[in-house]
């Protein structure tokens, strides 16, 4: 495309009042469409009217021109690499965006920091170690969508907007766990290579498909199960509130990932084996996490309340969390249309107490 330059001829005519008026008289866009606000206001679903609601499976252009606009034929190619709707879409993405925007919260204002009680030093230490791990893993769920966002065709703008909300959500999660670690005298604990290796797997994913399966479905699913256990492990109402607020956000990210995979597979069932291969590689994180002292022991200590009781319980508490993580993950895989029972390739003893062994081993 030729470099755009100022149209001085137009300027000379316009100075004399000889305007072009093409944008006013000759547009091909859908005049007369009037989106009606619903009960909560004017939502993305409300404005999906007429052809504006049609999201093409394979957009003809790779531009930032708004979908439904009358597009200049000379628009440049932006070089997007994700140009198939099924690569990023999910049937719930419009609603998830609306929910994300309406449920934003502030880690500064909405957590009653001044009500943090003085805790037993071991419990404070355990909470801070857990916050260290969470603060570490949360940010990859911002980095991964951010890495792929610019490559997504602008015709899938609602999916891009949802991923923007995820980036903001994860910034806040990183913030709130960092703040909790520093707010009550404990500080940050140990960061482990095993965790970093999984994060790298997500960041290095060769496709959005691969990274989204590893992150939205598997990694964030694990984190969601931990947040759900927050009621049991939170040492005070302050941490309960932190876990509860994070859980709302995390549930959206996982809902997107699950429904996105479902959409992707419904459009192209032949991709199932590729997704199985991604998860074969990623699921090892479950057995690695539940054999890492910096994860198992803080959780056990928070559950039991003291070192003696934790030693009495042994792996009982972590096992409870591990079986929940696996069961909830298996349910999500079922829902996405990618059943993983009988396919999980992690040591059998790490699957004990779950239904993972059911089904046919591939
Ligand atoms: Fe998060
Ligand atoms: Fe998340």
Describe this structure in words.
The chain has 2 domains: 6-79, no CATH class; 85-350, Ribonucleotide Reductase, subunit A (Orthogonal Bundle), CATH 1.10.620. It has helices at 8-15, 22-25, 93-102, 121-138, 140-149, 157-183, 193-203, 208-228, 230-233, 237-267, 272-282, 284-289, 293-304, 307-313, 316-336. With 362 residues, it is mainly alpha-helical. Helix 4 (121-138) runs antiparallel to helix 6 (157-183), helix 6 (157-183) runs antiparallel to helix 10 (237-267) and helix 13 (293-304) crosses helix 14. It is built from 15 helices and no strands. The N and C termini lie far apart (51 Å). Helices cover 56% and strands 0% of the residues. The site of one fe (ii) ion (FE2) has 6 residues, from helix 6.
How is the secondary structure organized here?
Layout: H1 8-15, H2 22-25, H3 93-102, H4 121-138, H5 140-149, H6 157-183, H7 193-203, H8 208-228, H9 230-233, H10 237-267, H11 272-282, H12 284-289, H13 293-304, H14 307-313, H15 316-336
Helix pairs in contact: 3-6, 3-10, 4-6, 4-13, 5-6, 5-8, 6-10, 8-10, 8-11, 8-15, 10-15, 13-14
